[in-house]
Design brief:
With 213 residues, the protein is of the alpha+beta class. It contains 3 helices and 11 strands. It has helices spanning 60-70, 80-87, 104-121, and strands spanning 15-19, 27-28, 35-36, 42-49, 52-59, 148-150, 162-164, 167-168, 175-178, 186-188, 202-205. It has a 3-stranded antiparallel sheet with strand order 1-4-5. A 3-stranded antiparallel sheet has the order 6-7-8, with no helix packed on it.
């Protein structure tokens, strides 16, 4: 997985004027193609390249994600989501170092887009062992907008291994989390298992606990 998956631009504009106005009418984001609603701030770029003027409008969440995944390099506008689908989504891990520093809103947009990509392409689903008891859970939960991390807690079976904003959950565990890239297993409570259910981890019910559903 690449933490800087966006291609670097090899040519540059002759003129680049960037502003962040408030939308007086609805616009379409250059990256995600979603609406920029009236009253929302957005990035407006007027550029001159090879003798041609162009105006592009991008929602601020896509701007944040583009700047984050370009890692300080100049990149090509309009290629954000295609590049993430090709070079980042296949091996994306929730709570991993590549998404550290993103705002909760940007993380939520990233997770939502990744789930849309999974469901439209069937990507990665063959590697996920999802118990029937969890299949009804939606991945789009409030916890996804928080800064969270799944800790490795191989010897601590009774306490949830999810830390929210640096504070570890103290609820009892019901689910064991393993994966190809995880050296030690982790354990979650029934509330926080939804955080990892769609990120190529293997979820098993802990036998010494009663069933949560």
């Amino acid at each position: 997985m690449q933490c800087c998956p966006l291609p670097e631009a090899d040519e540059f504009c002759d003129v680049w004027n960037e502003t962040r106005p408030t939308a007086k009418k609805a616009h379409r984001c250059e990256e995600c193609r979603e609406n920029i609603e009236v009253g929302s701030k957005y990035q407006r770029v007027e550029s001159l390249f090879d003798g041609h003027w162009e105006t592009t409008k991008t929602c601020l969440l896509c701007v944040e994600l583009r700047e984050h995944f370009s890692c300080g390099r100049s990149t090509i506008m309009g290629e954000l989501w295609a590049s993430l689908e090709e070079s980042f989504f296949p091996d994306m891990k929730a709570g991993g170092p590549c998404i550290a520093g993103l705002s909760p809103e940007a993380k939520n947009k990233l997770f939502t887009k990744r789930m849309e990509w999974i469901h439209s392409h069937g990507a990665g689903l063959g590697r996920v062992a999802l118990p029937p008891q969890l299949q009804h859970l939606s991945p789009r939960k409030p916890e996804l907008t928080q800064d969270w991390q799944l800790l490795s807690c191989a010897d601590e079976l009774d306490q949830c291994c999810v830390a929210i904003s640096g504070v570890r959950c103290t609820k009892p565990t019901l689910w064991k989390i393993t994966g190809e890239t995880r050296e030690d297993p982790a354990y979650t409570c029934s509330e926080h298992v939804r955080l990892v259910r769609d990120f190529d981890e293997v979820i098993e019910e802990v036998n010494f606990r009663s069933k949560p559903f």
